[in-house]
Amino acid sequence: MTKLLSDWAAMIGRHLRHVVRLRQRLINMTLLPAFFMLSFGVMFSSIIAVPNGDYKEFIVAGIFAQVMLTAVPGGAMGTLEDLRNGLVDRFRSLPMSGSAVLVGRAVGDTALRSIALIPMAVVGYLIGWRVHTGPLAALFAFGLLILFGFVLSWVGALIGLASGSAQAAASLTQFLMLPGIFLSNAYLPLGGLPSWLRVVAEWNPLSAPIAAARELWGNPTATSSGSFPMRYPVLMTFVWVIAIMAVAAPLAVRKFRTATVR
After folding, report:
1. pLDDT value at residue 135
2. CA distances (Å), origin 4, targets 9, 110, 191, 253
3. CA–CA distance, 213 with 7 (Å, rounded to integer)
């Protein structure tokens, strides 16, 4: 166990050092969501009505979650890059755990997205977003979003390893991302949707951390039904985190080991 933790710490340290050098990627990751926040928050706030609240506050959690969702293509492409650039070959002769590379990649990518949330929060504040609860609840909400992004990194790694090529991974992740974000509560209140589509959106794993963040920040949740995920979004976030991690992490490690012995 000590050796495993040491391997993880080594790879996490390597990827965190790279985060400091990825200024261009950090800028790109921040500017596009900030543009979405401005366009949706300012332009659509007069068009889209949120029950008992302001759309500018409603949309912020959705944009934050969108940044976390980019962990899926990021994890897929990053894992394939590690396989192509010789990183695995350099460590193959060492007695290193096969999961260390994946853990380091997931933590490094999550750190990058966590940093990107800071300027985005500033943009949100400028357009009218406010936290109406205490600092602990606010930090807890950010922690839930970051935790969900970490789990999605493993989903991305699994997709990248299973697809085997950058082109296939890019196509598959985009196919999953579009319905993942639009069939959720990220951009629109769910009350106006047809009943069957509302059920799909409420049980979308992405909807739980978004609703939890809104609840913890005191922002409008626009919850129109008594469905379990929307009544207990914090609990459902942890349920989804455990369920997704229990499936994605072991399969990704197994796929990684298979790929590195070829």
Report:
1. 93
2. 9, 20, 48, 14
3. 33
